[in-house]
Amino acid sequence: MNTANNSAVEVRELEKKFGSFIAVDRINFNVAPGSIFGFIGPNGAGKSTTIRMLCGILSPTSGSGTVAGFDIMTQQEKIKQHIGYMSQKFSLYEDLTVEENINFYAGIYELAPEKRKSRKEWIIRMAGLEQLRSSLTRTLSAGWKQRLAFGCAIIHEPPIVFLDEPTSGVDPISRNSFWELIRTMAASGVTVFVTTHYMDEAENCNTVALIYKGAIVAMGTPQGLKTDFMKGDVLNISLPDSQQWLEKLGQLPVVTDSALFGTDIHIVVSDASGAIPVIKDFFAQQNVTTCEINEIQPSLEDVFVSLIEDYDKKGGKDEPAKS
Fold first, then answer.
1. Are the C-beta atoms of 94 and 138 separated by less than 8 Å?
2. CA atoms within 13 A on the CB side of 199
3. How much is the pTM?
4. Helices 98-108 and 113-127, axial angle in degrees (round to 10)
5. What percentage of the chain has pLDDT greater than the value 90?
6. Which helix (H) or strand (E) is 301 found in, with range?
């Protein structure tokens, strides 16, 4: 891998248009070797389009970039040889057995026979499929398919791995287990570029880029984003039937933003000490007696909601905030 510029991935003014629709809007970022880079945003924000351009699957409309030192415009085949790629659909053949899937990918990457055998055994152990190696892939649970697909994507031990929504559709236990694998891999020096719409997963990343409507609206460490770019204090409100109160709370002058978080409501205010009495008085006037209000540290989801609200209010793209 050629990383003379000390970046495993680097893009400048990267853009992708489909007709008049701008899917990725002139984005810029670097990914340090051996780090976990999280590309975070809602469905349709441009995450998968970006990752496909970086993997040599989709040609950019304009801009420039390198992956493992190779040009994303002219050296797509070189890039494919130096990366692992796992799509959100897991890229497995359902009518093949576990072993047959592994053998297929070993053949694609032209692994030598001895290497093929050792890597296959490693994947089966890593995925916990020792007793299911002869089972058809379609009979596996989503969590097992996920780990098998991950193993097939890295069978050739690439220095950079792209994971596109890798935990979509799997249970929370499988999600946590999968992130343990990602952290272990990064600790060994592998660069991991992961897209997700689960904001809590971004806590595992060294750097996070928040993308919305094709534009990067903020970038930095998870802690830096929470401490540097949250415009105001965050209050957690617990009360029955929270859904019906969301819009009413959002109309209060002291409330900047409001959103549902599970069965609770998170609201953003400029000053918690001044806002709490106002909100308590509002609920008292509405005869709400069961209500708990606490100031909390903002989550990444709070930050993201606040940033996209601000982005939409401004009606356009500024330079992304950086921590």
1. yes
2. 17
3. 0.84
4. 140
5. 71
6. helix 300-314
